[in-house]
Amino acid sequence: MTTDTTRTRTRRKPAAERMRLLPYGAYLTRDGVVLHDRRYRPIIQCNGSGPVVLTVPAHDAQRRACTLELHLDDVTPVAPDTRIDFAAQCWLYHDGTSPQHDRGTRERLAKLVHAIPKLAAEIARR
Prior knowledge:
Number of domains: 1
Number of strands: 7
Distance between the termini: 41 Å
Largest sheet: 5 strands, antiparallel
Strand order of the largest sheet: 6-3-2-1-7
Structural class: alpha+beta
Mean pLDDT: 88
Number of helices: 3
Helix content: 10-25%
Shape: globular
């Protein structure tokens, strides 16, 4: 009697690749905020005019502290190859505090992803 022991497995991406899929920064557009990953590919767009639901510490190009305000009443996934027309940009961390090497950054990003279910779903899909 023979049994088939072959199983279909989904391979997990290496940790470094999973870290690159997390939000790295945001494009600030006239319609809202588009979070992007480490490769600057858009992940989700947060539009809305309702109350600010989530504030995230960030920094601008000169590493000056700023706050990213996310309106979560209209969150939509964005295709990674979409070109974003933006007025400004900010980042959630810099090379010295990358999630691969900084526990605090990993924890902040985990909270952000957990707070926005559509963000978590889009990252898992990729």
